[in-house]
Every structure is written in C-alpha cells, then in structure tokens.
Design goal:
The chain is an alpha/beta fold and 266 residues long. It folds into two domains: 105 residues, no CATH class; 128 residues, no CATH class. Helix content is 45%, strand content 12%. The strands form two sheets. Strands 4-3-5-6 form a four-stranded mixed beta sheet. A two-stranded parallel ribbon has the order 1-2. The mean pLDDT is 93. Pfam families: DUF3025. InterPro entries: DUF3025.
C-alpha cells in the first residue's frame, strides 16, 4: 500500500523528510511514528505527550478530536489516509496542535451534534484538504495571491509563471489531499491559505522554511481563529511544473479552472 506513493512528486516534499526519518526495518507504522514523536518531544495543546494508537483505542461515542485533546493519543488505522496524517503531525506539529485545540474547544462548548459548527468545520477542512501558499511580501507576490483569489488562472499560472519559486511556494498540508494525489487527476483542488512572508523566509533552507511556517500559521490560528472564508481554491496540478503539458489548453479547461462567480473566465 505505502509502496504506491511516488515520493519524488513535488506535492510530497512537505512530508518527505518526515517519512525518510522513520525508523527502517521491522516494527509497525505506529511504533515508528511514536519513536519519531518521542524524539521530537511532541505534545498536544494540553501538554500531554503525543502518541499514535490503534483506532480501537478510541472509545465508542467519543469524538476523534476530543480524544486527542483529552489524552494526546491519535487514533491511527493502517491505511494511507492515517499514514499521511501522522506524517503531517511530524512535519507541522504546532499547526496540528492548534487545529486540535480549536476543535476540542468547540466540542467542549457545544458538544458533538449533527452540525460541527463553523470553527470545527473550518478546522476539519484545513486538516483534511489544505495547502499553504507562501508568497513574498512584494508586488509580484501580492499580485500572484490576488490573481488566485480572483480565480484568474491564466494570470496566475501563465502570465506570472516566473513568480512560482522565487516569489511563491506551495506546501501541502491536508492528509486527505495527499491521499488523493497518490493517484493524481486534474480536478484535485486544495483549500488554500495564503501566508505572506518576508525575504528572511526565502533565505532559509527547506527545513528552516517548514519550521517558520509551522510557527507562523499556528500563531495566526491562535490569535485569529479560523473560518471557511480563510481559504481560496487551488487546483494543485496547475502549480507550475507540478504536472506535464501545462500549456494554454491545459489551463483553459473550465471544468477545473472555473471562473469566480459573477465573472467570466480569463
């Protein structure tokens, strides 16, 4: 199952380092995740050590997010979905911790009902399907972010193609999104949060950028909370050089690169 992951694909760069650091050889995936979590001294928002446990450890009638918040234990099944979830915990522990804090707080306040509530809905979208788009605090960076927010796909991906890399970088976060990309198809779309960064971020190496992003976004979530309005769509295979054949015809596919409501495609 895990052999189906094509690690050199650019969308797995986010969690590739965490996967490479898992202990090789015998032992279950849960044991490997826990060894790495212990090495990183990970904990939940209540300061409890973070550990991965079998799904059977989740008591019947207890919400998944509530259980993590109360115990520090992350129920984990032997499948790709939960494999990627664990890798994201090992890659962006501060963001994951803050998302769980938001979810657990709403459950404590409102209980577990038919409706998740706005904060829990947004946190679930973030957790499952988010991408983080870091743009430089420059004219080019802001222009690219604005084009994406307005669904001006040609402007973002064709006219401003040279900005991707020097002025903008995509980090996948959602574990369900990563699972979908094991068998990629053109319509896969992320709920994307734009993060503005200065030149100091772009001067860091890969590990330094990831740590910077983990701290910055977790801090923003703690200070500002989260709603679904925080996201803008990003068809991930449209990111320059993430897929072959990205010509004018590729981006003209209005079934994937849809115009914003009330506008016409560009």
């Amino acid at each position: 199952m895990f052999g189906a992951i094509d690690w050199p694909r650019p969308w797995y760069e986010t969690v590739g380092a965490a996967a490479a650091l898992l202990a090789p050889g015998a032992g279950s995936e849960i044991e490997k995740f826990n060894a790495r979590a212990a090495a990183l001294d990970l904990c939940n928002h209540r300061g409890l050590p973070l550990r991965f446990v079998p799904q059977s450890a989740l008591p019947e009638g207890t919400a998944y997010e509530e259980f993590i918040g109360a115990t520090g234990c992350v129920p984990t099944r032997d499948n790709l979905h939960d494999f990627f979830n664990a890798l994201v915990w090992l890659s962006f522990p501060r963001i994951k911790r803050q998302l769980n804090a938001l979810q657990a707080a709403q459950i404590a306040r409102d209980g577990v009902g038919k409706s998740r509530g706005p904060a829990r809905d947004a946190a679930t979208l973030f957790d499952e399907n988010a991408a983080l788009l870091v743009v430089r605090d420059s004219a080019a960076g802001h222009a690219l972010a604005d084009a994406l927010r307005q669904h001006q796909w040609r402007a973002a991906f064709v006219e401003q193609r040279a900005s991707w890399g020097p002025e903008a970088q995509v980090w996948l976060f959602g574990h369900a999104l990563m699972e979908k990309l094991v068998v990629p198809y053109k319509a896969i779309t992320a709920h994307t949060r734009v993060v503005v960064a200065g030149d100091d971020y772009f001067a860091l190496d890969h590990a330094g950028r990831r740590a910077w992003l983990d701290e910055r976004v977790a801090q923003e979530l703690a200070q500002q909370g989260l709603t679904t309005a925080c996201f803008t769509p990003l068809p991930v295979l449209g990111v320059p050089d993430w897929w072959p054949g990205q010509d004018e015809t590729f981006y003209a596919d209005a079934t994937v690169f849809r115009p914003k409501r009330g506008t016409v495609a560009n």
